[in-house]
From TrEMBL:
Organism expressing this protein natively: Pontibacillus yanchengensis
Protein name: LysR family transcriptional regulator
InterPro entries (UniProt xref): HTH-type_LysR_regulators, LysR_HTH_N, LysR_subst-bd, WH-like_DNA-bd_sf, WH_DNA-bd_sf
Organism superkingdom: Bacteria
Organism taxonomic ancestry: Bacteria, Bacillati, Bacillota, Bacilli, Bacillales
Gene Ontology MF annotations: DNA binding; DNA-binding transcription factor activity
Stored CDD domains: PBP2_CidR
Annotated signal peptide: none
The family this protein is said to belong to: Belongs to the LysR transcriptional regulatory family.
Keyword terms of this UniProt record: DNA-binding, Transcription, Transcription regulation
Gene3D superfamilies per record: 3.40.190.290, Winged helix-like DNA-binding domain superfamily/Winged helix DNA-binding domain
Membrane-crossing segments per the record: none
GO cellular component, one term: cytosol
Domain HTH lysR-type: 1-58
Length: 293
């Protein structure tokens, strides 16, 4: 039994005539009769009372008719839903977005995407970039933003943006008059860093280790504005990306370019290799790429 058996049976039931049903279906009457016979043999019941001039449903036929209408209705809904999905009329995107990165780069991107595709919802999961990679591996999100480098054996990555880090210090600091600060000049300073589940924590710490010193971590936070306030309160210094520094409006601190080495902050869109991506997610990736070009 296939879907055509139900379609033909439904038409015969509605027309109460093999001749009219065959004309409406554009098939021969013998072919239609054979199809209904096959359905009855398959179900092992008589569906139609053929003793009268006008065909009538048996009690079994009535039961099959009700279910056939339901099945065919579901098939129509499936076809419509699939069309809408393929043509981006509907869908859902599970997106892993670290809060800091979301604040800096994604309000306008998400707003514009939702305006373009109002039927597609975006479900955002917020973790630090390090935890986001694990969330992607475990299948909790389809797409995520991470800080490079990522494991290329597990992920496919698409460059999103890159910028340099700057030193944020109080205005009265002895290094505040410099145009540039070398990393080794911060070896005796107290550092205010993002918490350990933020990739930026390891990024700064590892570069300090490469320059031969272990940074003295005075405080850790998940909030960039709190970190800046702690710098303003003379609790220590911070190393932050240029995009965050651009949002600092306090006259009591200043940001100075970091050199030798300059620490790059590279962000990438990442997906798990060999994982199926929904039509909506593929379009969202392209939308993000276009918005950054």
């Amino acid at each position: 039994m296939d879907i055509r058996h139900l379609q033909y049976f439904l038409e015969v039931s509605q027309q109460q005539s093999f001749t009219k049903a065959a004309q409406h279906l554009n098939v021969s009457q013998p072919a239609l009769s054979k199809m209904i016979r096959n359905l009855e043999e398959n179900l092992e019941v008589t569906l139609l009372d053929r003793s009268n001039k006008q065909i009538q449903l048996t009690d079994a036929g009535q039961a099959v008719l009700e279910q056939a209408q339901r099945v065919l209705g579901m098939m129509e809904d499936l076809t419509t839903s699939l069309y809408d999905t393929i043509h981006l009329q509907k869908g859902a995107i599970s997106f892993g977005l670290p809060p800091l990165i979301g604040t800096l780069f994604f309000p306008e991107i998400i707003a514009n995407f939702r305006q373009t595709y109002p039927g597609i919802s975006i479900q955002i999961t917020e973790y630090g970039a390090k935890k986001m990679e694990q969330s992607l591996i475990e299948g909790h999100v389809e797409l995520a933003i991470a800080v490079a480098p990522v494991d290329q054996s597990i992920f496919e990555s698409i460059p999103f943006t890159e910028e340099k880090m700057k030193v944020v210090i109080p205005n009265h600091h002895t290094l505040a008059s410099l145009e540039r600060i070398e990393l080794k000049e911060l070896s005796k300073e107290k550092f205010i860093l993002f918490q350990e589940d933020f990739a930026m924590h390891d990024l700064v710490r590892n570069h300090c280790l490469e320059k031969g010193f272990i940074p003295h971590i005075e405080l850790e936070s998940s909030q960039w504005d709190f970190i800046v306030e702690m710098v303003r309160a003379n609790m220590g210094i911070a190393i932050l990306p240029e995009s965050i520094c651009a949002k600092i409006h306090s006259k009591d601190v200043k940001d100075i370019p970091l050199t030798n080495p300059s620490i790059p902050w590279k962000l990438e869109l990442i997906i798990k290799k060999d994982r199926y991506l929904s039509f909506a997610t593929r379009e969202f990736i392209q939308f993000i790429k276009d918005s950054r070009s």
